[in-house]
Amino acid sequence: MHKKENKNKVYSKTQEFFKKYHNIIVTDVKDISTDKIQKIRHEIVSLKETETLCGKTTVIQKAIKEMIDSKKLPKHLPEKEFQELSDSMPGIHLLLIFTNKDLADISAVTGKYVIEKQAKPGQLSPVEIIIPAGPTGMDSSQIDYFQALKIPTKVMRNQLEITTATKILTVGQKITLSEINLMKKFNIKPYKHQMKIKKVLLNGKLYGEEILKVTDDYMKAKLEQGIKNILGFSLGAHIPTEASAPHVIANAFRNICALSLGTNVLIDATKNMKEAPKEEPKKKEEPKKKEEPKKEEKPPEEEEDDIGLDSLF
Questions:
Q1: Are 139 and 70 in contact (CB under 8 A)?
Q2: Comparing 9 with 111, which gets the higher pLDDT?
Q3: DSSP codes of every residue in the chain
Q4: At 284, is the pLDDT very low, low, confident or very high (cuts 50, 70, 90)?
Q5: What's the domain count of the chain?
Q6: Taking CA atoms, which of 63, 158, 257, 293 is between 20 and 30 Å from 166?
Q7: pTM as predicted
Q8: Closest to 125 in 3D by CA, of 187, 175, 182
Q9: Do 70 and 206 belong together in one domain?
Q10: Mean per-residue pLDDT, 288-299
Q11: Are 202 and 56 in the same domain?
């Protein structure tokens, strides 16, 4: 009885939410734990004007089919796009997000929760794994982990040290127990899981997950780049446009000023340039020499005249 009530609840909510909200996101929550899903749902609903719905895909598709068959779809749900949205649901762990808010707010929440998981034997590696050179913090008794993968090591103070950085996994390589054991020692988890966006129904148009990258900042950057491209083409091809007009006028003004100064036919803009007195470079003042104190000259001693005896007579 409880299961039937739950199905009826999902069925009615599906039709209610599709009629109420204009933006619908189909997500896959495979490999995400139940408690993480609950956290994601709680944070999304807290944004207001937003709802989430989990349930059996067959029940949700049945509710959608009844809406399509009734031929009474709201304007924001074109029949073709609505059917394509329904066809994208089988084979995934379905979580529907309904909102009338900016999708950038939803994307910020869905991209925040990343779950790292250890690999299992036989799985294909999604990333390249390189074990760096340097001390490992492991004693010499654990050398077998490195020898199994032919990683060169040496013993320093009874601790293993990797002498050369070694690649143990490449993208698409089948993972064996040897790689898993070593990755556990270094706490390396090659698998990162998060909520995957499958389809987005935005105001009656169906898009892939790439539409969520189109934010205000993204559009601003693209617009600025487009204006730069038009400007470069316009100046190179000498075709005036609104983007190149300020640059063309500025270049023309510079040419007129240069011609005026070169021919001495002055205009208002160049008169000040011509008449501006050139400032003479200031001469460097030579440092004043310190005056040495004058030495006091002794008055010359008066020589006594020799009075000869002959002058007495």
A1: no
A2: 9
A3: -HHHHHHHHHHHHHHHHHHH-SEEEEEE-TT--HHHHHHHHHHHHTTSSEEEEE--HHHHHHHHHHHHHHT---TTS-HHHHHHHHHT-TTS-EEEEEESS-HHHHHHHHTT--EEE---TTPBPSS-EEEPSEEEEEEGGGTHHHHTTT--EEEETTEEEESS-EEEE-TTPBP-HHHHHHHHHTT---EEE-PEEEEEEETTEEE-GGGGG--HHHHHHHHHHHHHHHHHHHHHHT---TTTHHHHHHHHHHHHHHHHHHHT---HHHHHHHHSPPPPPPPPPPPPPPPPPPPPPPPPPPPPPP--GGGG-
A4: low
A5: 3
A6: 158
A7: 0.60
A8: 175
A9: yes
A10: 53
A11: yes
Is 34's pLDDT higher than 60?
A: yes
Residue given tokens 């002055």 in the structure block = 266
pLDDT in tens, 262-278: 888 777 777 777 655 55
One-letter amino acid at 293 equals P
What does the angle CA 60 – CA 65 – CA 68 come to, to the nearest 5 degrees? 130
Residue 274 pLDDT: 64
The answer to whether the beta carbons of residues 236 and 245 sit under 8 Å apart is: no
What is the average pLDDT score of the chain?
A: 82
Structure tokens at 68: 């399509």
For β-strands 196-202 and 23-28, DSSP reports them as antiparallel
Assess contact for 53 and 14: CB atoms under 8 A: yes
| CATH number of the domain enclosing 159 | 3.90.105.20
Token pair of 53 as six digits: 């719905």
Tens of pLDDT, residues 73-85 = 888 889 999 999 9
Q: Could you tell me if 264 and 237 lie in one domain? A: yes
Mean pLDDT of 178-207: 88
Of 129 and 233, which is predicted with more confidence? 129
Q: Indicate whether 304 belongs to any domain.
A: no
